[in-house]
Amino acid sequence: MNRNPRRWWILLVLCLSTLVLVIDNMALNVAIPPLTEDLGAGPQDIQWILDSYILVFAGLLLTAGSLSDRFGRRRVMIIGLALFGVASMAGTLAETPGMLIAARAVMGVGGALVLPSTLSILITVFDEDERPKAMAAWGAVSMAGLVGGPILGGVLIAHFWWGAVFLINVPVAAVSIVAAAVLMPESRGPWRRPDPLGMVLSITGMAALVWTIIEFPKNGVDGRTVTGGAIAIVALIGFGIWESRVKSPMVPLRLFRDRDFAGGSLSLTLVEVGNGGLLLALTQYLQFVLGYSPLKTGVSFIPVAVAALVFNGLGAALVGRLGNRIAAVAGLLIVAAGFGTLAGVAPGDGYWPVAIGLVLMGAGSGLAMPATIGALMGAVPAEHAGVGSALNDTIQQAGAALGVALLGTVLTSSYKAAMPDGTSDQARESIGDALAVAARTGDSTLAHQARDAFTTAMGTTFLASLTGVVAATVLALFVLRGRRTPPPTPATSDTAPATNAAPVTNATNATNAVGPVDTPPGAEAVTLVPPTGADALADAVLMEDTVDTTPGAEAVALVPPADAVALVDKAPTEDAVAMAPRAGTVAPADAVGLGDAAPVADAVSSVASSTRENGSVVGLVGDGV
């Protein structure tokens, strides 16, 4: 097995590139109060400073992933890091809210180019046996950034000024660019025609969807949100129709036919929806109910990060021993227990029940996320690693945004319902408003009522989160595949001809072929490909047409002529067995016979394989067999 000797250094660079994106967004929340004062930003300005990044980022993710597959994943990541670093410097120099909003939008472009590239490069650099460990480390770093961002932001604000939360990105981005250029090999999928209409539809649809989700909690059902939702629906439906018909789609929709990809995608969405209300509710509980400072609030989330870091490694080991399904289900059950613990927090309980719930959630996420993301990305062909990673990121971003919108509505409505009758409208609007009224009027009873009402509302919100996680657990249990037995190591020596092999005539030998194999006039060609040769195919049709073999046998696939290539120095096919109803009439001179294999649609040729010292030789057989 030819492993990249620099792969762990490459992983470090990928983690660093991901970390700078996560930390920046989390640290910015701490910088809002001083930033508001220095720039004279109003509430609408603050909202756009926060949302301009996520709007551009979410809208461009799929396009960025597709571009990385076409033009090179390392190249796209470096360009993204450069944009992110330059825009961060511009953010530190901003003198007006408009300048900072523009800088944040450009940072969103850079982030969209970087994040899908990191995971797709990881997939191409690490072999399948080491991939769970690498993905666990990548996921743990993201979790550490979520928790460490507010802490770092608080330290920077305390010792410097609000611009420091942007300035720190510049050297990190520069180091990542240099390290990527020196350490990383370039990787890309085979050349395919651009899909400009698909790009326009995906950008329009995702941006409109995220904008609608952001605006809905503030404005409810009004003309703007209805228009935004309608644009999102029309654009995304149009995107799906177009991608299913175009010859070179930006997103191969057939990925969703794979149960691991579809199950992993939907499970991730439900989990992220559930997680969407976590920070929203707990940060207010810690600050308004328990009276913590912003810095102490950030430190209070450390248990979830530590547990995730520890259990990410265990999750990777569990995937290796028991498979994605068991690891995902076990982890999601623990996450559900965490939400159940948080839902049971009562007024006056303090921090410790919260800490226990956070530990459970971190441990469960550490077990489940490597398995769920691993199942999803394991179904993606190498040539589509970039867009597959972008789909993963888009699913998580959309799920989190949807979770904030839905669970934010649940939290607000539950708080209003829990407040006693007769309280003022302002006090019923939010716990922050209620405490402000109580402080202004000296009404300690109102403050106590508001804290109790918010604690009750938080419990209701986490019960809703629990429902989403339970649904994700059921999906993982019944949809994800169990552990797959890796194929045996291919033999390298010649094997004796099988006694039941059919005679081969008119075979076109493909020993030295490096392109499509010619067929007799009027014949439809197919190519028999061992899995070790899958990376030599020009298109991901292999994944769609791959068929399972009996336990212990070498998997093979029938590939249409447009994507057929002769494989040189690949594994012999002596382990080939009958390939269910998809199989064609295959007559391997040096392999086992295929019995009652059903004919291939439109095929008038057969496939023969013989073994040479250097691997498999594929021949196309004429009608005279």
UniProtKB/TrEMBL annotation:
The chain crosses the membrane at residues 45-64, 76-94, 100-123, 135-158, 164-184, 196-214, 226-242, 263-286, 298-319, 326-345, 351-377, 398-415, 462-480. The keyword Cell membrane applies. Pfam families: MFS_1. InterPro entries: EmrB-like, MFS, MFS_dom, MFS_trans_sf. It is found in: Cell membrane. Residues 491-502 have a biased composition (Low complexity). Residues 10-484 form the Major facilitator superfamily (MFS) profile domain. Residues 483-502 are annotated as: Disordered. It is a multi-pass membrane protein. Keywords: Cell membrane, Membrane, Transmembrane, Transmembrane helix, Transport. One of its GO terms (molecular function) is transmembrane transporter activity. GO terms for cellular component: plasma membrane. Its main location: membrane. NCBIfam families: efflux_EmrB. This is DHA2 family efflux MFS transporter permease subunit. It comes from Actinomadura logoneensis.
